[in-house]
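Next comes a single protein record:
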Amino acid sequence: MRRWIGRWLMGVGALHSLLGLVVFSAPLRDLLEAGVVNALGSRDPVRNLAFWFLFGGVMTALVGYLVDWVERAPGGVLPRPLGWSLLLIAVLGVTLAPASGFWLVLPAAVGILLRSRPATHRAPAS
């Protein structure tokens, strides 16, 4: 089966992070100039948004890397709860912010659900 789900999520995470670096360049500069340590303790909501926006992109890319790693493994099958979780996150995000990039998570969620084993299957204990 063609391996694409993890790569898709890594791409979404990379695009999210690049967009964050461009859109939030000024608040991110402020964050660095504030000395980083406790820099989010400020009451500047844009600085906090900039951090969490970048954090979300990095975490999406990391999940994508893990998904790709499982897809590469011989017999690697992604767990169905991961697909349901990503679908829930995507639907919630699209509902709250329709003009966002949450739409880009839907293909990965559906792909995982189509490829995953039913919840009755348990991975062997190590």
User: Anything to note?
Assistant: The mean pLDDT is 90. Residues 5-115 form one domain. The two ends are 26 Å apart (CA to CA). DSSP finds five helices and no strands in the chain.
